[in-house]
Known about the structure:
0% strand; single chain
Amino acid sequence: xxxxxxxxxxxxxxxxxxxxxxxxxxxxxxxxxxxxxxxxxxxxxxxxxxxxxxxxxxxxxxxxxxxxxxxxxxxxxxxxxxxxxxxxxxxxxxxxxxxxxxxxxxxxxxxxxxxxxxxxxxxxxxxxxxxxxxxxxxxxxxxxxxxxxxxxxxxxxxxxxxxxxxxxxxxxxxxxxxxxxxxxxxxxxxxxxxxxxxxxxxxxxxxxxxxxxxxxxxxxxxxxxxxxxxxxxxxxxxxxxxxxxxxxxxxxxxxxxxxxx
Length: 261
């Protein structure tokens, strides 16, 4: 019983950090709990994907596909508070306007959005909408569940590969900024793999999607290490956004061949 409560505490800690969803009042705020919460990042993504899928299913009964997908995407923004989108915008502004580590980190801390961040947000939102629009209707639910879980695991993988870049203890991601243990990494990976199982009938596309996500992680790992010597919370948000896009791209690859047309 104590073990179950501890794991629930870890899960709800991750849920509180990454979403606007309410959690029980007994959930702790300790750094140790947040450190262990990394194992549940994909689980939080799975829940966000489930909400997006439910909104898609319900709204598609009343409105055309583009409207239903737009409402589904809006639901994810509402549930997460655009947490990852904010990270993408800050990261893009930082690297777009900075010329060294100190300046990049300074820009990334600025709450105002710049030209680079605005462009990245438009591309991310429009990209996800267009990619989902191209998916067959009967793929969308599974694609949403898998993409949201896998893209959160991509952030965990980046944390596993890099150290935290900021030196200030007050940074918003600092309580989660650890070198992820093998156990937490494997648990997160297993969770991300579960919603991918229904896509095994598209094995080639699924494999390509996962390879694209892996490529995103390793490219960001090299890029962030070169410029920052590690990652920040904004880097993790950008990784999640890019990985979600990459996953949808992989599922759509060679789609006419898959359909037999």
